[in-house]
Amino acid sequence: MQDDIPRNPVRQFPFQMLKEIYEQPDAIRRTIEQHLDGATSSIRLDRLPLSAAEWAGLRSVTIVASGSSRHAGLCGKLMIEELAGIPVNVEHASEYGYRKPLNGAESLVMAITQSGETADTTTAQRLAKEYGKRTLAITNVEDSTIAREADANFFTFAGQEIAIPATKSFTTQLTATYMLALFFAAHKNALGPEAIRRRIDALRQVPSTIGALLEQFDVQAHAIARNYCDDEVFIYLGRDVHYAIALEGALKLKEVSYVHAEGYPTGELRHGPTALLDENLPVVAIVTRDASDPESVLRYERSRSLLREVHQHSKRLILIASQGDEELRKLGTSCFLLPETNELLLPIVEVVPLQLLAYHIAVLKGFNPDRPRNLVKAVTVE
């Protein structure tokens, strides 16, 4: 007997970049599930040669990465420092690989790369090993050079990413760094089992949150892009962990639409860049908040105050804000609204509308976002 249940047609995407943006909930979910022991709510790595005592004795972490992966590392720095209490430096792989590492013996060098073949990051990891450092690789390709040469591995299960701009590889890297921060916190006894379980439960909600918002963000980003596709200069703003997402949003716009965009820490706007403000300059600002986190609320309030000043010069504000924030909506700006969640998980969600905004501006300009000019998927030459 023929099945009479109607079937939803498979969605056809005009470009691979858009398809991969929509694949992010599944990619994040796979990355979580592959590294989570459901019975104990503990986090496991894919290769783990260090003993529990060695992890507990870890005194510092250096993250080496390039491009979008470095932006993930900037978020990871704040995640690890806040949750595990371990000092973290984030280095451009292209700089770290050509000088003597100064971090001590009880340190870890963490390499982040989508392909696992990035030349600068490979060089940086090899130099770290030459100086006796332990290394850990976060990569999306299991049989890659960096994965094979690292002491420890944490794989992101994003699946193949065909478009040159990083989308699902980036959000799975954010997921990986957050899970590693909890892994370190457990071994350092910086967080108790119950606190870790609550944070894992919150992380597991992120794929559903993104999935529920994707269509809305897509439609909204297209509408906003129609009003901004002729602009040639953008400023992106974010505080603390959100600064890295401002950098990533600016990079996406540069990569796919060839528009000049710069990311700044929100508080730094007064230290020079304010001179650029006029009635025509688009300003993209991340002003989300975690109402349960006093420091997050304080950062939000300071950002909101600064945006009132920005609004006096430019009415062309695009905001990433929290649902229910009527104060910011009064500015009469374009707003992507996110549900409130843990401060350190917000970046995984808030980058999605910025990816979509860059995509739609590129398409409206007539460019192919999958193959930006002069770029390759993996930079394998130094």
Model description:
The protein has 382 residues and is of the alpha/beta class. The chain folds into two domains: 16-204, Glucose-6-phosphate isomerase like protein, domain 1 (Rossmann fold); 206-364, Glucose-6-phosphate isomerase like protein, domain 1 (Rossmann fold, 3-Layer(aba) Sandwich). Helix content is 46%, strand content 16%. The chain has 14 helices and twelve strands. The chain has helices at 16-22, 24-34, 52-56, 68-84, 93-96, 119-130, 145-149, 168-187, 193-204, 206-228, 241-257, 294-313, 326-329, 346-364; strands spanning 36-37, 42-43, 60-65, 88-92, 107-113, 134-139, 152-155, 233-238, 260-265, 283-287, 317-322, 334-338. The strands form three sheets. A five-stranded parallel sheet has the order 4-3-5-6-7, sandwiched between helices. Strands 9-8-10-11-12 form a five-stranded parallel sheet, sandwiched between helices. Strands 1-2 form a two-stranded antiparallel ribbon. The longest helix is centred in the middle third of the chain and has 23 residues, at 206-228. It is globular, with a radius of gyration of 21 Å. It starts with 15 loop residues before the first helix and ends in an 18-residue tail after the last helix.
How would you describe this structure in keywords?
alpha/beta, five-stranded parallel β-sheet, Rossmann fold, 382 residues, 14 helices, 12 strands, 46% helix, globular
